[in-house]
């Protein structure tokens, strides 16, 4: 789960990670009020979950999702041009993202930019602090070209962040004196936030020092562990469904795991591994999968019905491939779900079904005795070939 | 011989009175598994299915029944505690089926297990099956949620991160007449108890296992590690498959651990590591059984 920049700023404030003075606004008037309390260099930023905002273009022709202004009137003017408009950046895709909030903050005089992140490292099974003197740029490029400038500090999973570890990181970044003290306070707060909020990643890029001796987080990216959200209702509230594919939001309501892709063969599969493998074999046979969809190990008739509706909501879909390995799950239950769904949705594209496993004979009989027009397949390869052929025909 | 468990292994189930745990407890009993105890706090003294005694604590269950393996079907908020309870009771093997345990919880559990004598399989896994010699492999040891009847006792070791994809592979093997020594699902979470490499070493040392199928998926580098080890240390024929070649980067594909991030954990890199180790890589998921036939020559 991602959150907005202004929400990240609020979390930072709660955990004592310093950020530039400012606030979020959802009207030009509110933007003006916030700006009146700030200095003479003010930055106005569109709030969307996508990088490349500064170089983005609004669909109304207005250039740039990040602007520098001198006074409150100018801040209100820029806010007016952004709010309610759609911003397209290299990360949003052509459809862009609707801007409903803007962040108004003091533009900071930057002395130097750094990179600081904490992430859950699966290999060492511990949090790792990643720090670099090369901030404000794409860290993956730094890692590739100058790996010696990236410093990793592994943290003990049970002991947590130790003072000497903070000193190590500060020293690698070249901090001393009061700057080192301020950095220590910031890192301590950041680590507490990482642990307390069940983050899988929190990244500050850039972290900056200012000529007047402050250490500030200028931008942040969060990734929370979805498995842990049940114990963080406050963080769940930060979730903005308008930032997500509406089909994925709809699927989540029915406990279906759906990810939309660009192809035209939809798949409906039980189990994540088999669902990925089904996408792979479609591609292998010369087709393009339209989605990842895992209906889970114990799918019900109702879930199958809803899964069909979501799949068919994608106008690109030209064929459907159902691949079920009913281990414990009864193939006949799935078959009945398919028949019920097809009765409701007025299916007019080819449907290839491969059923295998528990009670498969009854499942196949249910499909054969229904009036659903489908193409039966015996193996996974057979199913994929038939789906690809059905589109070509 | 098989690995980890066999038909004589005494198993207990934590969470046996839940609908999920109960259902699979019954299926294990039907399969002929030595299910000797259940644990649900507050329900000690009751019985499951008319024959399996239920205890309040794992320690009691182990002391009274001699169970050496615990299968954990406890819901995510209580699963870390359940795993630690099994470890505290000194079981040899804890198999965590539960899906959706917070990663931080698993990080702490793994750190706390350091130096203990318990091996953890999972979480978020289908479990372990050592098939039996009866009809439809009846009489074997089934721990977890895999369908028993698709198996056949034999000489192929199967290790995988996924559930249904494993069943697919097992079914292909059984239909080719290739039985299995043991099938282990190590789970789809980013932090788990046992890796591909750990299981690969056990299969290598197991005289009954003559060939191995390793099934992986995108995310992490566990498959690469296992392949690199196998290259120098394993003489048994190995076939492999990696799911997720078409998955978009940066997205979690159902399993919490199945994500390509920062260019790491791609299917291509894993398949390359396998080929480099002399592992016969299946071209597609329908080809897993045939790939093993090719590997065996």
List keywords for this structure.
heterodimer; A: 393 residues; alpha+beta; B: 297 residues; alpha/beta; 9 helices; 21% strand
Give structural notes.
The complex is a heterodimer of chains A (393) and B (297). In chain A, strand 17 (319-326), helix 11 and strand 18 form a beta-alpha-beta unit. Chain A has helices at 5-14, 28-36, 72-82, 139-145, 163-172, 177-196, 233-236, 246-253, 272-284, 301-312, 331-345, 360-369, 380-392, and strands at residues 22-25, 42-46, 57-58, 66-69, 86-88, 97-98, 102-106, 112-121, 126-132, 150-154, 199-209, 215-217, 220-224, 257-260, 265-269, 291-294, 319-326, 351-357, 375-377. Chain A is α+β, with helices and mostly antiparallel strands and 393 residues long. Chain A starts with a helix and ends with a helix. The model of chain A has no long low-confidence stretch (mean pLDDT 92). Chain A is elongated, with a radius of gyration of 26 Å. Chain B has 297 residues and is an alpha/beta fold. Chain B has nine helices and 14 strands. Chain B has helices at residues 19-31, 58-65, 76-88, 103-113, 164-175, 196-205, 222-233, 267-276, 288-296; strands spanning 11-14, 35-39, 47-48, 52-55, 69-72, 93-96, 119-121, 127-130, 141-144, 153-160, 180-185, 211-217, 238-243, 280-281. A seven-stranded mixed beta sheet of chain B has the order 3-4-2-1-5-6-7, with helices on both faces. Chain B has a seven-stranded mixed beta sheet with strand order 9-8-11-10-12-13-14, with helices on both faces. In chain B, helix 4 links the parallel strand 6 (93-96) and strand 7. Chain B is globular and about 55 Å long. The two termini of chain B are 24 Å apart. The relative contact order of chain B is 0.12. The interface between A and B is large, with 54 and 64 residues.
